[in-house]
Design goal:
Length: about 425
C-alpha cells in the first residue's frame, strides 16, 4: 500500500509540473501540434518515471554505511487492528470511493455515445461519411465516426462541420480525450489533472481550427458557423464537440499571429526542467530511506547471548565495520575472507548499538493487559503469536501521562483472548 501511495504521489507531482510548464510557457503559443505531443509524452513520462533510474543525474559523493537491525519478532510482525480506522485507511477509502464514482461517470458517458450511435444511421454528404442522428444533437466526432443531425443545419454549416470533425477523426483526437479522462479517474483529487484535461481539450480545438483555416476557408465565415452550430442541440461530453463556452477563446486564438520559431526554445527549456524535477523527487525519496545491510537473517553470538539480525537482501552496500566492545565476545559469519564485514578492535571506530542494547539501557514501562510489569521484565518472554496489539507512547507523552520524569517510553501490549 505504501509503495502504491508513493507511486501515485510521484505521478501527480510530475503531472502538476507538466501543467504548470504549459500554463507559464506554452499556452499562448500557436504550436498546437507540439503542445499535443507535450501533453501525451509528458503523461507517458509521468507514469513511467518512478520506474526509471535517475541516479546518474545526482551522483552520490559518499558511501552509505549499513545499519544492523536486530530482529525483534514482537515489533516486526504485522498486526491487523479492527478497532479503529487509521488516517491512511480513511484517505484510501475516500480515494477509492472517488475512483469508483468517476469510473461510473466515464461508463455513463460511453453509454451516452452508444445511445446516440444506436439512434443514428450511416449516411454520406459530399464525400463525407457520417452517422445521421434521428434527434437534435450538437455535432461531434468520436474515434472514427462523425455524428450529425443533418436536418438542423444548412449546406454552408454542414461544410464547416464536416471539415472540422473530419480533422478530429483523422487526427485520432478522441484517443487524447479518452486517455486524460481515464487519468482523471485515478487522480480525480488533483486539481492540476482537471486543469490538464481541460487544456488538452482546448488545444485539440485550437489545432483543428488552425488546420481548417489552412485549407483556405474564410475565417469570419467559419467563426460565424461555429457560433450558430454551438448553440444547437444536446452535447455529448466524451467527444470532440462544438463548445459554445470555449468559442470566444477559439476565435481569439484563430486571429492570433503565428508564434515565431524562436519560441520553440520554450520546449527545449521545459525538457530538462521536467526531467530534473522527476529525478530530484526520486533521489530525495530514496535518500530519505535508511539503507540496511545486505545480509539475510543469520545468527550472531554477542556476550554469550544469541542474537538474530535481519536485513534487506539484494542491496548494494559498502563494507561495514563492526566494533567488538568486549574482549570475551566474538563475531562470526561463515563467508569468504573478502567479506563486506570487517571485525576490528580499534578505539576510533564508531560504535554500533543494537536495538536490543538500546532497550536494555532505557527505562521502558511495559503494561500487559492493564497490568504494569516490573523492571526485571523481559519482552522476549512473550510469544509473538499471543499478541493482539501494541501501542507505544514516546518519552514526552509517557512522562505526562504517568507522571514519571525518568520514563523513556511506555509499551502497552494487549494479548489475544
Amino acid at each position: 500500500m505504501d509503495a502504491l501511495l508513493i507511486y501515485f504521489i510521484q505521478v501527480n507531482v510530475l503531472i502538476s509540473v507538466i501543467y504548470i510548464g504549459y500554463y507559464l510557457f506554452l499556452r499562448y503559443l500557436t504550436f498546437y501540434r507540439l503542445n499535443r505531443l507535450y501533453f501525451l509524452i509528458g503523461l507517458i513520462f509521468a507514469i513511467a518515471y518512478p520506474f526509471l533510474d535517475f541516479g546518474w543525474l545526482f551522483p552520490n559523493e559518499f558511501s552509505p554505511l549499513g545499519q544492523f537491525d536486530e530482529y525483534l519478532p514482537f515489533l516486526n510482525d504485522k498486526f491487523e487492528s479492527t478497532k479503529s480506522l487509521t488516517l491512511t485507511g480513511g484517505v484510501s477509502f475516500l480515494v477509492g470511493v472517488g475512483v469508483i464514482a468517476f469510473a461510473g461517470r466515464f461508463i455513463f458517458q460511453i453509454l451516452s455515445i452508444l445511445r446516440v450511435h444506436y439512434y443514428s444511421v450511416d449516411a454520406k454528404w459530399q464525400g463525407f461519411l457520417f452517422r445521421n442522428v434521428v434527434f437534435q444533437v450538437s455535432p461531434f466526432s468520436f474515434l472514427k465516426r462523425i455524428y450529425v443531425h443533418i436536418e438542423q443545419h444548412n449546406e454552408h454549416e454542414l461544410r464547416d462541420i464536416f471539415e472540422h470533425e473530419d480533422i478530429h477523426v483523422k487526427g485520432l483526437h478522441s484517443v487524447d480525450i479518452i486517455v486524460f479522462e481515464m487519468l482523471l479517474i485515478g487522480c480525480w483529487y488533483n486539481p492540476f489533472v482537471w486543469l490538464t484535461r481541460i487544456a488538452v481539450r482546448h488545444n485539440l480545438e485550437f489545432l483543428t481550427d488552425q488546420q481548417v483555416l489552412n485549407k483556405g476557408i474564410d475565417p469570419q465565415t467559419y467563426q460565424y458557423s461555429l457560433l450558430q452550430v454551438a448553440r444547437e442541440g444536446t452535447s455529448v461530453r466524451l467527444s470532440n464537440q462544438f463548445n459554445f463556452k470555449l468559442l470566444k477563446t477559439r476565435i481569439m486564438m484563430m486571429n492570433k499571429k503565428r508564434s515565431s520559431k524562436r519560441r520553440l526554445s520554450n520546449y527545449i527549456f521545459l525538457l530538462p526542467v521536467i526531467i530534473f524535477s522527476a529525478g530530484a523527487f526520486t533521489i530525495n525519496r530514496a535518500e530519505a530511506q535508511i539503507e540496511r545491510v545486505v545480509f539475510t537473517a543469520s545468527s550472531w553470538q554477542l556476550n554469550g547471548d544469541s542474537k538474530t539480525f535481519s536485513a534487506v537482501p539484494d542491496t548494494v552496500v559498502e563494507p561495514v565495520i563492526v566494533q567488538v566492545k568486549k574482549k570475551e565476545g566474538n563475531l562470526a559469519k561463515q563467508q569468504d575472507l573478502e567479506s563486506p564485514v570487517e571485525v576490528v578492535s580499534a578505539s576510533d571506530t564508531v560504535p554500533v548499538k543494537s536495538r536490543q542494547e538500546a532497550f536494555e539501557n532505557s527505562n521502558i514501562l511495559y503494561i500487559i493487559d492493564g497490568e504494569r510489569m516490573g523492571k526485571d521484565f523481559k519482552i522476549e518472554t512473550i510469544d509473538p503469536n499471543t499478541i493482539d496489539s501494541i501501542s507505544v507512547l514516546k518519552r514526552k507523552t509517557a512522562r505526562e501521562r504517568f507522571g514519571d520524569e525518568e520514563l523513556d517510553g511506555v509499551m502497552i501490549i494487549v494479548l489475544k483472548k
